[in-house]
Amino acid sequence: MLRHSFKLGAFALAVGLGAASLAAPALAQEKLKVGFIYVGPVGDFGWSYQHDVGRKAIEAAFPGKVETTFIENVPEADSERSIEQLARTGHKLIFTTSFGYMEPTLKVAKKYPNVMFEHATGYKRDKNVATYSAKFHEGRYIIGKIAGKMSKTGTIGYVGSMPIPEVIAGINAFYLGAKSVNPTIKIKIAWVNAWFDPGKEGDAAKALMDQGADIITQHTDSPAPLQQAAARGNLAFGQASDMTAFGPKNILTSIIDDWNPYYIERTRAMLEGKWASQDVFDGIAKGKVKMGPYVNMPDDVKKIAMETEEGIRTGKIDPFTCPVIAQDGKAVECKDGKLNDGQIAGMNFYVQGIEGTVPK
Amino acid sequence: MLTPVLALVVAVLIGGLIVALMGKSPLTAFRVFILDPLTDPWAMQEVLLKATPLTLIAIGLLFCFRASRWNIGAEGQFLLGGICGGGVAILAHGMTGFWILPAMLIAGALGGLAYAAIPAVLRTRFGISEILTSLMLVYVADLLLDYLVRGPWRDPKGFNFPQSVAFSDSAVLQPLFEGGRLHAGLLLALAAVLVAFVLFRRTLFGFAVSASGDAPRAANFAGFNESRITVLVFLISGALAGLAGVVEVSGQVGQLRPGFGQGLGFTAIIVAFLGRLTPAGAGLSAIVIAVLLIGAESAQVTLKLPFDLTRFFMGLLLLCVLVGESLNRYRLEIRKGGA
After folding, report:
1. Do the Cβ atoms of B146 and A99 come within 8 Å?
2. CA–CA separation, B36 vs B44, rounded Å?
3. Hey, which of A96, A138, B234, B296 has its CA 20 to 30 A from B37?
């Protein structure tokens, strides 16, 4: 009964809305509405901020043809409504930019088959759900080399968010980079279990420095670890965007996520009716991962960094060149001389030399 | 009864002014924020979905607050409810059976109840402030959830991400209406409002609770046992918060994951006071808060208003209600010449 009367109400409302839209003058040309869901505030100056830069790039690339919307600070456990909110308000292309939006995105996508979804860093796809990510670990390999050269105490502090493969692969790539220039280097990892929590991120950085780390790197979204390192006169790296402003004397470089080309390309595909579900995983070669200026380091270190970056760009260097030895001392299965994308995207082990275990 | 309504009107007027100062039309903002969530069928469902756990928790808190026992840790009891109920779902993963959902609900309520018993007993036995203990237990619950979804209950196929398996269909509260998300938890919330209403209006127990809050000495003379009431109101409050937790986990989230609490247990404190500690008031103010939350999201989408404005509106609303309360109780008098 309840169900019945509800449908009746919905019907009455639909008729009413229909009548209203008939009365409205026809729009000259309908804009493509593109929506974004952010896990943090756009002002985090890291992850969400960079996605928002990408959103603005779409508006600039297709003036008059697209309209963009974002909802920020969307908790992953309560995101289904927010995603549906965009889908039902005429957004035809929706980017959900955090791993935890995976299930909600798929659920909403089933309900709205004519809306196309793009889920960042996920691994489940559908006809109207594409996934995309970036090889951030390539950047981490470069900063690993810098850290290995620059550390005086021989200990580097790593502020980790969550032990998911993307982050584990980053830690491994960083360590391999550092070890290649300094075989005795040690890294200490502190998990904050959040993507954006400046308080916890900063505390983790302090704790790591208390344990002897003189360089801090991070896989979280805010500049807090860099700021804490700067406060103690230590060195650190920027994450996701160029964070120079938060520690100009202490930053070595930043790993910059550049989503602009990808977002523009996908919006263009949408406008031309060529959008198709896909999985994209690329990095420095395609410009999705960029490096900030190399500063506060001697020229020889700078040279190593630039050569490594160039090597990765041209494909001469790969962070996961075989043999890759896992913690248990066994070489990881390997074809073509390096690990494949699937192995990196599902990485669940530390390489030999990293102390501690992947949190389980 | 008129004061909260008046407070609401004042809050809307001030909010409208702020929106106008930001260069947007206050009338459109009013429509997006308040009218749309109350008229559009999809949004109505989402409002009720959000109001469901808030109502359940707030009804439980009424018992504590009426008796002047300050349970600030409903968030923790909510989490424990979700953990216990969700635990049943995880253990029964892949099974089917009509018993799974009831077992989850009972486990959730018991989990919340047991968790709320801790601050109650600490107070009655050792005289430790329940405000502090209940609050601090929130963090313990948070960490317990964290441990479980990273450790024993982690989805083995989840790429290490801290979350449990997605519950099977028979462990999920099914939607009431096709295509919507509103689930049967709403009926539990309604039932809670009714039962609380009857308890406070018609039973000695309800009277004893209110009396022990309003006039503890008189209640003592009347033979109401203070410790017993403390424990009972905490158990009721915990059970309802636990029930809310399992309802949210089963009906809305569909798995255990860190952060499923979303601070609902704290928001429910506002809900309880906004409703002036009455059962019907709690239900209504849960809807008001839910409307604001849903409306704020629409405002981000359609008006491109910032997210922080929501929190601002909520604070504004509470402030207006509190000011209204005191103006109701006291008369404002301006005297010339100072003290």
Report:
1. no
2. 8
3. A96
Confidence of residue A1 (pLDDT cuts 50, 70, 90): very low
Question: Mutation test of the interface with chain A: which of B143, B161, B169, B310, choosing the one with the most A Cβ atoms within 10 A?
Answer: B161
pLDDT, average across residues A205-219: 96
Q: Considering CB atoms only, which of A6, A13, A71 is closest to B300?
A: A71
* 3-class secondary structure, B137: helix
Mean pLDDT over residues A279-287, rounded? 92
Question: Which of B288, B280, B294 is closest to B318 using CA atoms?
Answer: B288
Q: Give one DSSP letter per residue of B67-119, joined into a string.
A: TT-----HHHHHHHHHHHHHHHHHHTTT---TTHHHHHHHHHHHHHHHHHHHH
Find the CB nearest A81 among B46, B177, B259: B46
Q: Which residue from B39, B253, B307 is facing A77, i.e. has the nearest CB?
A: B253
pTM to 2 decimal places: 0.84
Note whether B297 contacts A71, CB cutoff 8 Å: yes
Distance in Å, alpha carbon of B244 to nearest chain A alpha carbon: 15
Cβ–Cβ < 8 Å for A179, A156 = no
Give A120-173 pLDDT, tens digit per residue: 988 899 999 999 999 999 999 999 999 999 999 999 999 999 888 889 999 999
Q: Which domains does chain A have, with CATH numbers?
A: 30-135+259-286 (3.40.50.2300), 136-257+289-318 (3.40.50.2300)
Show residues of chain A in contact with B258, CB under 8 Å: 77, 193
Which tens digits make up the pLDDT trace of B1-20?
Answer: 677 788 888 988 998 999 89
Calculate what percentage of chain B has a pLDDT beyond 70: 99
Domain residue spans of chain B? 52-295
